[in-house]
From TrEMBL:
It catalyses: D-ribulose 5-phosphate = D-xylulose 5-phosphate. The keyword Glycosyltransferase does not apply. Belongs to the ribulose-phosphate 3-epimerase family. Catalyzes the reversible epimerization of D-ribulose 5-phosphate to D-xylulose 5-phosphate. One of its GO terms (biological process) is pentose catabolic process. This is Ribulose-phosphate 3-epimerase.
Length: 214
């Protein structure tokens, strides 16, 4: 069963509760946190996650695009995140490990994220510990970019490694996922698809969510 994680980066932040309710048939709510340092854009942070937590029971998938995520993972867990993902490129392996340990110590699910130029092998040190691996299919920072189909071999390689070493681990893709690209992600082995513009620009959002499930 393919899970859909609408990204609220494409929602209307002045009508966030309304736009969260519009995607209630999806599985996770994907929350993009950007600090203007790790990526050249600034989005939302801890107080907004707290407010979202009060208006939905959906599982919150918090994607941290920030430097030194170890400094903030506990705050995001306490704000109501169910799953917190950190980029392997955002700090040293020791600090990434510490971030994962801190998320787990809060009783939450942890994941690692790979940018397009980062090879699958970069996830190996964490593969047996995390609940999710996220493969970016655009350069992180902005919604509405073109899907990078050249990331599919990486997704397929990670699917094989996950099946061998940690079959409960989820495999998520993020960026440019739309009706014409979701099939490639599913065929490569992803089981969670993030979609921002494809969901929020749709005329009929529940129908679009169903369509993206493949
Ligand atoms: C990009 C974000 C994505 C983004 C996806 O840095 O991580 O989650 O919102 O948006 P679409 O689906 O429009 O590419
Ligand atoms: Zn994201």
């Amino acid at each position: 069963m393919i899970k859909i994680a609408p990204s609220i980066l494409s929602a209307d932040f002045a009508n966030l509760e309304r736009d969260i309710r519009r995607v209630a048939s999806a599985d996770y709510l994907h929350v993009d946190v950007m600090d203007g340092m790790f990526v050249p854009n600034i989005s939302i942070g801890i107080p907004v996650v707290q407010s979202i937590r009060r208006v939905t029971d959906m599982a919150l998938d918090v994607h941290l695009m920030i430097v030194e995520p170890v400094r903030y993972v506990e705050a995001f867990c306490d704000a109501g995140a169910d799953l917190v993902t950190v980029h392997v490129e955002s700090d040293t392996p020791e600090k990434i490990q510490s971030a994962i340990d801190r998320i787990h110590a809060r009783g939450k699910r942890a994941g690692v994220v790979l940018k397009p130029k980062t090879p699958a092998e970069a996830a190996l040190p964490y593969l047996e510990q995390v609940e999710l691996i996220l493969v970016m299919t655009v350069e992180p920072g902005f919604g509405g970019q073109k899907f990078m189909s050249d990331q599919m071999p990486k997704v397929a390689a990670l699917r094989q490694l996950i099946d061998e070493r940690n079959p409960a681990c989820e495999l998520e893709v993020d960026g440019g996922v739309a009706p014409d690209t979701c099939r490639a992600c599913i065929d490569a082995g992803a089981n969670v698809l993030v979609a921002g513009s494809a969901v929020y620009k749709a005329e009929d959002i529940p129908a679009r969510i169903l369509e993206l499930r493949g």
